[in-house]
Write a structure and sequence with these properties.
Layout lengths: L5 E5 L5 H11 L5 E6 H4 L6 H11 L7 E4 L2 H10 L3 E5 L13 E3 L10
Parallel strand pairs: 1-2, 3-4, 4-5
């Protein structure tokens, strides 16, 4: 968050206040300029609504954003359909089957090498 604006989009149908409290307890809430939860938005990924809302809250155009996700159909396809670059966290090493992510990494920790 020191060099990039960060957003969080989560498919969550449980009450979001518990998840928000958990993120607060971890001390990470302040890192995000946008935090969207499906239960609050009435949509789930890959709905473009969530991605567009996050872009608007962050004040960036789709071509200025990179979405990182671990679900090929929900994350990669959803973000790409809105014009965002994508990084897929492929923890199993299976490789993409349904999408064409811009980058593929094996773990979240591997993201640092892309920055």
């Amino acid at each position: 968050s020191r060099t990039h604006r960060l957003g969080l989009i989560s498919d969550l149908w449980a009450p979001s206040h518990r998840y928000r409290a958990y993120l607060d307890a971890l001390g990470v809430t302040s890192l995000f300029g946008s935090m969207l939860f499906s239960c609050e938005q009435g949509a789930v990924k890959p709905s473009p609504r969530l991605f567009r809302c996050a872009l608007e809250e962050l004040g960036v155009a789709p071509e200025q954003a990179v979405f990182v996700g671990d679900k090929e159909t929900r994350d990669v396809i959803g973000a790409a359909s809105c014009g965002m670059a994508t990084v897929w966290v492929d923890a199993t090493g299976e490789g993409p089957r349904l999408s064409q992510p811009d980058r593929v990494v094996a773990s979240v920790e591997a993201l640092e090498a892309l920055v």
